[in-house]
């Protein structure tokens, strides 16, 4: 397993980019600020843009100091080369992401 980490900006940006066929086994969004933050997440096929047809979380309220976990336990998200998981928040750099993935 491998881990990718990053900070979420106010515009949709890559939290993870698949290189080959991969499976995301864990993903979290952590609000490390003293204020509430609204986040969005998209699973975007290679060559596409983040939009309502590939949005998996919309306007998720993450309270101050809290963490939201996606793709945990037995859940997996399968991605092909160039597919991305993208995120944004209403406050740049308030949310950090951790993505654990493996090659399949």
Short description:
It contains no helices and nine strands. The chain is mostly beta strands. It has a single domain (2-103), classed as Jelly Rolls (Sandwich), CATH 2.60.120.
Describe the structure.
- With 104 residues, the protein is mostly beta strands.
- It has a single domain (2-103), classed as Jelly Rolls.
- It is built from no helices and nine strands.
- The chain has strands at 2-7, 13-17, 22-31, 37-44, 55-62, 67-70, 77-79, 84-89, 95-103.
- Strands 1, 3, 6, 7 and 9 form a five-stranded antiparallel beta sheet that branches. A four-stranded antiparallel beta sheet has the order 2-8-4-5, with no helix packed on it.
- The model has no long low-confidence stretch (mean pLDDT 95).
């Amino acid at each position: 397993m491998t881990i990718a980490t990053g900070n979420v900006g106010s515009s949709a940006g890559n939290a993870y980019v698949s290189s080959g066929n991969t499976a995301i086994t864990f993903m979290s969004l952590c609000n490390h600020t003293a204020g509430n933050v609204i986040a969005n997440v998209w699973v975007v096929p290679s060559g596409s843009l983040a939009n309502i047809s590939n949005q998996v979380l919309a306007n998720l309220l993450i309270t101050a100091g809290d963490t939201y976990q996606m793709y945990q336990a037995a859940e997996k998200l399968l991605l092909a080369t160039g597919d991305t998981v993208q995120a944004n928040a209403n406050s740049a750099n308030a949310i950090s992401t951790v993505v654990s993935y493996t090659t399949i």
